[in-house]
């Protein structure tokens, strides 16, 4: 599945999203009423390595990373204890191969904040993680509601 097709799927499934490109990635923000400058981060798509993160080897052809946050409870259920924040220019130590395609795993930098990644997901993998995306979307909507009060 291409990143454009994934963005189309996500934007059709979840209302109130704004697509913005910044910091070398495409971010999908929840901001239905445009009451926040950017909105609340829902999901990011990155298609190249950054200066501080080369762990996924995103410079390969047709490889991109989808990242989003899940609840602490769900993170624990899937991966166990959350790793500590990595040192600058380092990655979390979870034993995962962060270059592996089409597998949900902790995000190499932001796992300590309950973020996960999947590289170049297939349609089958997307179907397998859609409940996680649904839960993440609800959490983002709740954060937005608190921020605009």
Question: What is the gist of this entry?
Answer:
By secondary structure, the protein is of the alpha+beta class. The chain has a single domain (3-148), classed as Aspartate Aminotransferase, domain 1 (Alpha-Beta Complex), CATH 3.90.1150.
Which class in CATH terms?
A: Alpha Beta
Strand content: 15-25%
Largest sheet: 6 strands, antiparallel
- CATH architecture tag: Alpha-Beta Complex
User: Which strand order do you get reading across the main beta sheet?
Assistant: 1-2-3-4-6-5
CATH topology: Aspartate Aminotransferase, domain 1
| Tally of helical segments | 3
Molecular structure report:
- This protein is an alpha+beta fold and 149 residues long.
- Helices cover 30% and strands 21% of the residues.
- The chain is built from three helices and six strands, in the order H-E-E-E-E-H-E-E-H.
- It has a six-stranded antiparallel sheet.
- The protein is globular, with a radius of gyration of 15 Å.
- It starts with a helix and ends with a helix.
- The model has no long low-confidence stretch (mean pLDDT 96).
């Amino acid at each position: 599945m291409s990143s454009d097709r994934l963005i189309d799927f996500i934007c059709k499934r979840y209302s109130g999203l704004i697509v913005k490109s910044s910091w070398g990635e495409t971010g999908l923000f929840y901001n239905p009423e445009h009451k926040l400058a950017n909105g609340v981060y829902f999901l990011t798509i990155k298609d190249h390595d950054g200066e501080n993160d080369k762990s996924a080897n995103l410079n390969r052809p047709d490889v991109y990373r989808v990242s989003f946050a899940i609840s602490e409870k769900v993170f624990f259920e899937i991966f166990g204890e959350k790793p500590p924040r990595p040192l600058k220019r380092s990655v979390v130590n979870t034993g995962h191969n962060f270059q592996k395609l089409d597998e949900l795993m902790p995000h190499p930098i932001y796992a300590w904040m309950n973020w996960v990644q999947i590289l170049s997901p297939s349609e089958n993998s997307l179907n397998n993680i859609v409940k996680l995306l649904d839960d993440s979307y609800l959490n983002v909507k709740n954060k937005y509601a608190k921020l605009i009060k």
